[in-house]
TrEMBL record:
Pfam families documented for this protein: Ald_Xan_dh_C (PF01315), MoCoBD_1 (PF02738), MoCoBD_2 (PF20256)
Protein name: Xanthine dehydrogenase, molybdenum binding subunit apoprotein
Cofactor or coenzyme needed: Mo-molybdopterin cytosine dinucleotide
Domain Aldehyde oxidase/xanthine dehydrogenase a/b hammerhead: residue ranges: 16-122
Source taxonomy: Bacteria, Pseudomonadati, Bdellovibrionota, Oligoflexia, Oligoflexales
Gene3D superfamilies: Aldehyde oxidase/xanthine dehydrogenase, a/b hammerhead, Aldehyde oxidase/xanthine dehydrogenase, molybdopterin binding domain
InterPro entries: Ald_Oxase/Xan_DH_a/b, Ald_Oxase/Xan_DH_a/b_sf, Ald_Oxase/xanthine_DH-like, AldOxase/xan_DH_MoCoBD1, AldOxase/xan_DH_MoCoBD2, AldOxase/xan_DH_Mopterin-bd_sf, Xanthine_DH_Mopterin-bd_su
Length: 787
């Protein structure tokens, strides 16, 4: 198959505007719109709601509260969150009630007219304050190896400090959207922009007192998600379903960008305390670290996110002695949630910051410190949780990118440049990534697929994967097309629906193609087994004596045919080995097979083998494999304005055997730039009451084309070693995000050169303010003390 013809699922229809998102579905007659009444305070008690002014408006049909729900408890792991508040308010923007009206405008107007009486309490709006007050969720976690205390006591060099990384808004272009269609017999059909249709199905059913079988959730595609629709779409889907159920009318809920930014959870901010012991040559002896993340007002996915941060604080480095503790803080922000990397970037950024500090203390090139600490091949190759780093390409990739990026020469040139150019200083950093692939919760690592081959030789495939722009549909179609040896355009990936695929996991953890692609491949194999037997039977007749599919009913039904292993499916043809001139078209073969009553549809189930993790012990093999990569970034920092530009970025990624390279390049470039937004320019600013001030692109700075590197090289490295993942491929969705450690570390490197100090308190994001704070600390102290 010619893979260059395997376009992104939507290459054409996105461009022509034909692609349908939830909000594009034309309204039906009598459709209603849902407005959400939200809390005006971050913490307190809900005393009363008075909807009379809202209900007096012409065209407002309903007002519903917690009392209208059969079950008012939900959450992706613990059900600790009310769908609608009935007593305690935990964040500003928390849903209190819904109104239903004729138009979206009227619904918003009515929501604003509902009188809300509250009693405010003191909120916790800062992770540092939450730490000080020990405002924690229960069950802290621990991973420990070796003798950390002894090592630190005996070490010649010890650094300690605290490190902060900020949150991040997902900034998917399509806001949270849902339409609910009431069906006969009280059943419910939901069209949702969600990464997790099964969770929407289950939570809607719970909340409305229905069986799971009475609810179907469909997802055609999302306009971006990035983790922000892994759990949090569910909340709005249920609110919309409540309205539809109560009124028996089709209801729609679509957040505006401002509402979406203000009301939904974000990437977790972290604030960690650490001690590190190291040798004179830069080798780390021991790391003692306590990670804290800001969970927000409910637990959501904060515990597994913290866990993934703990499992990635080693990044690509061997830590012989390590004590890694993790605690989730409770604050009064919208519950923070999944975001590309899922805690991994926060863990990685921490160790990369430490490495820059070690390098500064030893007057070494940070790249040399990194090289010395990299996981080894024969030894020094087990993580602190004792998973062996198999198939370790880190040293090879490291040396390769040092060469191809001219790292050493450029570093020397930068140092020379900085001696004579105090206003615009430059910096460079190489950072690796080793990202663990698999859900850390074992049971999520399964998927199922349904494949239907039609009599004209076209094929439909349905899986639990949801398309959010990442190209999972393209990859699944390639896998299916290759399995049957047909061209890509014969395969159609169908709308994701809980009706076709049951009990699906969220499309998350970079595993969408791995899990669902494999399930699809297994389904194909389940069709191919009898089909191949039949093909051998059919093709072993001389051409003029082959059974006529319609006139001559034949009944071949053997499990095996002696020539089955000779059957080749290729280029839309089917033939016996060495007899390609006597082959038939795939379409002809399947039509004949149908008339012979061979099943042309099948189901496949895949589960990831050989993974396990004991959270209590902090030991195991949570990941099937690691995706590995490297980035070198050169930055220029304007020390008068604090502005940062990336002059050049080189990226090297090892993705096994790529299923579709174009998609992978897109994921690498996009993931990296999205990471740069988090690392450099995106800052969430709240007022003292917990109200998000940066709730639109005018105040929240995501990267634009001018923020991309002036020179940008991305290269894939094929790893010939066989991987156990589907077709020897490797997951790509999240790993490149973590390479944003490289520009951040390069900025830190530039600032170290500028200030002659380690800038160990340098935070993330490296906004202009943060850069200037490092250069002119006294000025900032003065202006802050005046506030
Ligand atoms: N979601 C999840 C994830 O539920 N578990 C994970 O381990 C994970 N990892 C990355 C992204 N989403
Ligand atoms: Mo996720 S952070 O939805 O893979």
């Amino acid at each position: 198959m010619d893979k260059s013809k395997a376009f992104h699922d939507s290459a054409l229809t996105h461009v022509t505007g034909e692609s349908l998102y939830v909000e594009d579905i034309p309204p039906v007659h009598g459709e209603c719109f849902v407005g959400v009444v939200v809390s005006p305070i971050a913490k307190g008690q809900l005393l009363a709601l008075d909807p009379s002014a809202a209900l007096n408006l012409e065209g407002v049909y309903g007002f519903f509260t917690a009392k209208d729900l059969k079950v008012n408890q939900w959450g992706p792991i613990l059900h600790d969150q009310p769908l609608l508040v009935d007593d305690r308010i935990e964040y500003l923007g928390e849903p209190l009630a819904i109104v239903v009206a004729d138009t979206p405008h009227l619904a918003r107007q009515a929501a604003a007219l509902v009188e809300v009486k509250v009693k405010a309490d003191q909120a916790i709006l800062d992770i540092v304050a939450a730490k000080a007050e020990k405002h924690f969720y229960p069950s802290p976690m621990l991973i420990e190896r070796g003798d950390v205390d002894q090592q630190i006591e005996d070490a010649k060099n010890v650094l300690e400090g605290s490190f902060y990384t900020g949150g991040q808004e997902h900034f998917y272009l399509e806001s949270q959207s849902v339409i609910v269609y009431p069906q006969e017999g009280g059943d419910i059909l939901v069209h949702s922009s969600t990464q997790h249709p099964s969770e929407v199905q289950h939570t809607v059913a719970h909340a409305l007192g229905l069986g799971y079988s009475q609810v179907v959730c469909e997802v055609k595609r999302m306009g971006g998600a990035f983790g922000g629709k892994e759990s949090q779409s569910t909340h709005f889907a249920v609110l919309c379903a409540l309205a539809a159920k109560k009124l028996g009318r089709v209801c729609r809920l679509h957040l505006s960008k401002d509402e979406d930014m203000a009301w939904t959870g974000k990437r977790h901010a972290f604030h960690n305390d650490y001690k590190v012991a190291f040798e004179d040559d830069g080798v780390i002896r021991a790391l003692d670290i306590q990670l804290y993340n800001d969970g927000g007002a409910y637990l959501d996915l904060s515990a597994p996110i913290l866990q993934r941060a703990m499992l990635h604080v080693d990044n690509a480095y061997y830590l012989e002695h390590a004590r890694i503790k993790g605690t989730v803080c409770k604050t009064n922000y919208p519950p923070n949630t999944a975001f590309r990397g899922f805690g991994g970037p926060q863990g990685v950024m921490q160790i990369e910051s430490i490495i820059e500090d070690i390098a500064f203390a030893l007057k070494m090139d940070a790249a040399d410190v990194r090289r010395r600490n990299l996981y080894g091949i024969e030894s020094r190759n087990t993580t602190p949780y004792e998973q062996k780093v198999e198939n370790n390409l880190l040293p090879e990739l490291f040396d390769q990118i040092m060469e191809s990026s001219d790292y050493k020469q450029r570093r020397a040139a930068i140092e020379t440049h900085n001696q004579t150019n105090p206003d615009v200083v430059r910096g460079i950093a190489l950072t690796p990534v080793k990202f663990g692939i698999s859900f850390t919760v074992k049971f999520l690592n399964q998927g199922n697929a349904l494949v239907n081959v039609h009599r004209d030789g076209t094929i439909q495939v349905s899986t639990g994967a949801t398309e959010m722009g990442q190209g999972v549909n393209t990859k699944i179609a390639v896998i299916v097309a290759e399995a049957f040896g047909v061209s890509y355009d014969r395969v159609k990936v169908m709308t994701t629906s809980t009706e076709k695929n049951h009990n699906t996991s969220a499309t998350a953890a970079s595993s969408g193609s791995d899990i669902n692609g494999y399930a699809a491949l297994i389904a194909c194999e389940n069709i191919l087994k009898p089909l191949t037997g039949y093909a051998a039977y059919y093709l072993s007749h001389p051409v003029d004596q082959r059974p006529n599919p319609i006139l001559e009913l034949h009944d071949y039904d053997e499990p095996d045919h002696p020539r089955a292993s000779d059957v080749i499916f290729e280029n839309d043809q089917v033939y016996l080995k060495g007899e390609s001139n006597k082959g038939v078209s795939f379409a002809h073969l399947v039509d004949c097979a149908y008339h012979n009553r061979v099943s042309l549809g099948a189901y496949g189930h895949y589960k990831t083998k050989d993974i396990h993790y004991d959270r209590q012990a902090g030991r195991g093999q949570p990941f099937l494999y690691y995706t590995q990569g490297m980035a070198v970034t050169e930055v220029r920092v304007d020390t008068l304005t604090g502005d940062v530009k990336m002059d050049r970025v080189d990226i090297l990624m090892e993705l096994g055997r790529s299923i579709q390279e174009g998609i992978d390049y897109g994921q690498i470039a996009g993931g990296f730039i999205q990471g740069c937004g988090w690392a450099i320019s995106e800052e969430l600013v709240y007022d003292q009451d917990g109200r998000l001030l940066s709730h639109s692109p005018t105040t929240y700075k995501i990267p634009n084309i001018q923020d991309t590197p002036r020179e940008f090289h991305i290269k894939l490295v094929e790893n010939p070693t066989k991987h156990s993942s589907v077709k020897g491929s490797k997951a790509v969705g999240e790993p490149p995000f973590l390479l944003c450690a490289s520009p951040w570390a390069a900025i830190k490197n530039a600032l170290q050169q500028k200030t002659g100090s380690s800038v160990s308190g340098f935070k993330l994001p490296a906004t202009a303010e943060e850069v200037l704070r490092q250069i002119y600390p006294a000025a900032f102290e003065e202006s802050e003390s005046r506030l």
